[in-house]
Amino acid sequence: MYYHRQLENKIIQIAGEYACITLYGARQTGKSTMIRNLFPDYEYVTLDNSKERILATDDPELFLDSHGTPLIIDEIQKVPDLMETIKIRIDEAKIKSVNEETTVMLMYILTGSNTHEIRENASETLTGRTALIEVSSFSECEKLKKTGDEFVPDIQILQAKQKEFVPKNRSEIFKEIYLGGMPEYWIKKLNRETFFESYISTYLEKDVSRMINVGRLDDFRKFMRIVALRTSQQLDYTEIANAVGIDARTSKSWISILEASGIIMVLQPYTSNLAKRIIKTPKMYFMDTGLCAFLCGWSDSRILEDSAMAGAFFETYVVSEIVKSIRNTGKRIENMLFYYRDRDQKEVDLIYVKNQKLYPIEIKRGIGKDKADKNFNILEQYKMPIETGLIIDTSDKVFPLNRNTYYCPVGMIGL
Question: Is pLDDT above 90 for 414?
Fold first, then answer.
């Protein structure tokens, strides 16, 4: 059974605008499945195949000649130099199209699992020739087979969408948190232990081993578990290093590997020249709560719901769902999502920035408390318009706490 992805509309749109599309993201997020479903007539080749990889490395011209266009190339990060030859082919096609007064059709679709490496190589080599699209695991809307949209914390928009919303109780929400959104695991209902253990082993062997000494893979596995236990917290590289038994420099480097692989996302603090007391330390979130729960050793959603980490997992779930809803429209979150915390321990969980306006968001796993918005006014120091704030929790409808703050059910994200 194929579950349609929210990104499909964006991909179809840009397919008529670019000669190349590059999709990147964590392993098992459904990149190849989505592309092959959208473009069933395109030839598909994976560089996991050793013969194809060797040919692409030794003679990229012959490799491309042997397959022609349009062509889907999977695991492109394994032969990054192939992008240079693809660039030449695209440029040749553009020159020909100008001379013949025709349009260059989509020639290549590239996919891969090393977010940073692919994005950097494509940005440098294929600038102006490829569209870059990041793919995440299933969002809640995708699991429910709803079209979904970008989450915008505008009260009028949320109230208008409320008729589409079917509330879930807290236990149902934590079941979704526990399961996560890996497409193959979700659709096929695979054995949890087998799937995630295989996922981690494949990730270590195919991605991490290319970036660190193979003899340190056991340390990296331990590192992943330590980091998972700290999801939704500020990054303390030294503390993580001490827990794993590595140095802080290695800890920081390995965090970068997790981020580059799409396993985690790093949320930056909102800064300004006026904010002299802000703590400039990023927060870290796992992008798939199912993988995070597995690494932490939780064996049941109810145990997780009753645990001391319940709040951290709920916050991780909310942030990852918002990030997915933005990415699924083809946008990046770097200039849209932030958090605030200062040395007085005043904190705002999320700051959503849109059209030079600040939308403060607090995240509570229960029904929000009366003073959940107590720190929203700290944002006045930025001298920017502050819109109505949100408390995202497990309530069943959008309703006001006061004139400046509304409760918002977590299930409203992405509708």
Answer: no
